[in-house]
Design a protein that fits this description.
Radius of gyration of chain B: 21 Å
Oligomer: heterodimer
Strand content of chain A: 15-25%
Structural class of chain A: alpha/beta
Number of helices of chain A: 10
Number of strands of chain B: 4
Radius of gyration of chain A: 19 Å
Structural class of chain B: mainly alpha
CATH topology of chain B: ABC transporter involved in vitamin B12 uptake, BtuC
Number of domains of chain B: 1
Helix content of chain B: over 70%
CATH architecture of one domain in chain A: 3-Layer(aba) Sandwich
Order of helices and strands of chain B: HHHHHHEEEHHHHEHHHHH
Strand order of the largest sheet of chain B: 1-4
CATH superfamily of one domain in chain A: P-loop containing nucleotide triphosphate hydrolases
């Protein structure tokens, strides 16, 4: 754990939002995650990298409750988290995007992002039936926040377009918008730049950096593009075959022999 | 002009999310309401009520209900007939056990009873999806019809096994029984359709409607956003069954008056309502009405055309009706898989630019 405690310059505070402690995740005989520990500081951009099949997505799935690890603990905001369903974890303030876009295809971009406000809308079924009055007011208060997200992501022109009809890059942006609308304390991004061209990657990097600096949102992301990862993240965890092989600032990780071996291979002699 | 957005500037979120954003549409809606309330009741007679208006209104409620479940929440149900039977038998038991209970409340309580039953049969939806769920609801259909046919308590041990609606009135107007006037029956159903359609619109435009659509489109993503699938699915089953139960209660008390469960609420009812929402448009309030109108009006129109105009024998015409309606369904699904509601939207798109599309 020596590397994790190395001080990082810049915006990063030292208060952990999330601590992952000795997680072991097995599927039958396959060990997907083997005794991994790391933490995510308040307000930082934390990257998880590693070759295909290293267990990065499984790690995110553990964090937001799709998988329940056999051993280990997840601590959120200084408290140990009991086994929870994904929707309960959403109510705690953790939002995420998916590797393969998981938008609601039949709904407009606006409705998709409005759905992201779900955890903030409290009115019951009966006031929604009547609509006039409290439910309507709540709807428009949330609409205002959603419109701010739409402005931020520069997708005003596609507000009412069904998301199924949008190009890939914009769908990714809408999905980010849906996660942002929840005003999460921790934002998990699973390969936000997969399949994008350079310009789209630059845009997406800018949005991620802006989210982090303007709203102070803590971000944990998985990404394969090393250039992007090294540029935007504060600290990096490197995984290989379910094990953690490196942890630290981008520069440290870049020069770590174990990481270089994992990515480039080791010669036999 | 007819149908223009010119001069429509939306300056608030309330105006932006209106049900009918274009002025012409709004006027048309009020016009339909006014005709429905002030004109139709004065000209309606037994034939029009029995052949067109009552079945249309009642099926519209049922297809609104099924559309909430299947169109909005994505849970396929083939149990509609069975749930309508629950509504009908609940209404019958209430009417005979509490003769003083107002018919309005009889129908509402029947809806709640059906909602409870529907929620129970919705429980499998937490584990199974798609075709498998359809088969599970099919079991509900057969079980419920069997139950009402088998257990004498439900039909008060009458010798024929039929249930007959006693005469009940709302204020001075007879609503049920053989002496009820078509105008009173029509208005009674119209009231339910208006209220329930309004509620359906409110539910589907807001938080709960979005949680249903989220479950329909991508249940995993819905869950990470905070939607509890248990609550979303079961609330869809409950509210949908409420609508279907009200439709069943009205179908029995107002429309038919006497019912034999294996005939009135068999599997064919489930399919008819399912066809209505598929033809009308899944996930659309307007589609529920359009589908109900199509399935109710088509046989009437065809019968008039074939028998009265062309002079065919009644039995041959009856068979050709099936063929033609089946053909039309196939035709519609090929031309516009998203139903009449989508055709209607396309028409409105075209109308915006008409007559100068460039």
């Amino acid at each position: 754990m020596s590397k994790a405690s190395i001080s990082i310059g810049g915006v990063t505070g030292k208060v952990p939002v999330m601590e992952i402690k000795n997680i072991v995740l097995r599927f039958g005989g396959v060990v997907a995650i083997q005794d991994i520990s790391f933490d995510i500081y308040e307000g930082e951009i934390r990257a998880i990298i590693g070759p295909n099949g290293a267990g990065k997505s499984s790690m995110l799935n553990v964090i937001n409750g799709f998988y329940h690890p056999q051993e280990g603990e997840v601590w959120f905001r200084g408290r140990k988290r009991a086994a929870m369903k994904p929707y309960q974890i959403a109510h705690q303030g953790i939002a995420r995007t998916f590797q393969n876009i998981a938008l609601f295809k039949g709904m407009s971009a606006l409705d998709n992002i409005m759905t992201g406000r779900f955890t903030h809308m409290k009115k019951g079924v009966f006031s929604q039936m009547i609509w006039k009055g409290s439910a309507e007011r709540e709807e428009y208060e949330n609409r205002e926040i959603v419109e701010r997200v739409i402005d931020f992501l520069e997708i005003q022109h596609i507000r009412k377009t069904p998301v199924g009809a949008l190009p890939y890059g914009l769908q990714k942006r809408v999905e980010l918008g849906r996660a942002l609308a929840a005003e999460p304390q921790l934002l998990l991004l699973d390969e936000p730049m997969a399949g994008m061209n350079v310009e789209e990657k630059e845009d997406m990097s800018r949005y991620i950096l802006d989210v982090n600096s303007e709203f102070g949102t803590t971000v944990a992301l998985i990404e394969h593009d090393m250039g992007v990862v090294m540029d935007i993240s504060d600290r990096v965890v490197v995984m290989d075959y379910g094990k953690k092989i490196g942890d630290g600032s981008p520069d440290e990780v870049r020069n770590d022999q174990a990481v270089i071996d994992a990515y480039l291979g080791v010669s036999d002699n | 002009m007819l149908y223009r957005e010119v001069g429509e500037y939306k300056t608030s979120y309330a105006e932006d999310s209106q049900t009918f954003p274009i002025k012409f549409d709004r006027y048309r809606y009020f016009f339909v309401l006014l005709v429905g309330i002030l004109f139709v009741p004065f000209v309606i007679n037994d034939y029009w009520a029995g052949a067109v208006f009552l079945p249309f209104l009642i099926y519209a409620i049922a297809s609104l209900g099924l559309n909430i479940l299947t169109g909005y929440c994505g849970q396929v149900s083939l149990g509609t007939g069975g749930f309508m039977a629950v509504g009908a038998y609940a209404a019958y038991k209430l009417m005979t056990a509490f003769p003083d209970l107002n018919i309005f409340f009889v129908v509402i309580i029947s809806g709640f009873v059906t909602a409870a039953v529907g929620t129970m049969f919705g429980l499998p939806s937490l584990r199974i999806k798609g075709f498998y769920l359809a088969v599970a609801t099919l079991a509900a259909q057969f079980f419920l019809v069997w139950l009402f046919n088998k257990v004498g308590w439900f039909y008060n041990y009458s010798a024929s096994g039929q249930i007959t609606a006693p005469a009940r009135s709302l204020g001075d107007f007879l609503i049920t029984g053989p002496d009820a006037t078509p105008a009173a029956q029509y208005l009674f159903c119209f009231l339910f359709v208006f209220i329930l359609a309004w509620i359906a619109r409110n539910l589907t435009r807001g938080k709960i409607g979005r949680s249903w659509m989220a479950i329909r489109d991508m249940d995993i993503a819905a869950e990470i956003i905070g939607v509890n699938p248990l609550i979303a699915k079961l609330s869809a089953f409950a509210i949908s069954s409420f609508y279907v139960g009200v439709a069943g209660a009205l179908f029995f008390t107002v429309y038919l008056g006497a019912v034999e469960v294996t005939e009135a609420f068999n599997i064919q009812k489930s399919f008819i309502v399912l066809f209505m929402i598929i033809i009308g448009g899944l996930g659309s309030i307007f589609g529920s009405f359009a589908g109900a109108a199509f399935m109710v009006l088509m046989p009437v129109v065809l019968k008039n055309l074939l028998v009265t105009q062309l002079g065919w024998a009644t039995d041959i015409a009856a068979h050709f009706e099936f063929i033609i309606i089946g053909g039309l369904i196939v035709f519609f699904l090929i031309v516009e898989p998203h139903g009449l509601a989508q055709l209607w939207n396309l028409l409105k798109q075209k109308l915006r630019l008409w007559p100068f599309p460039y």
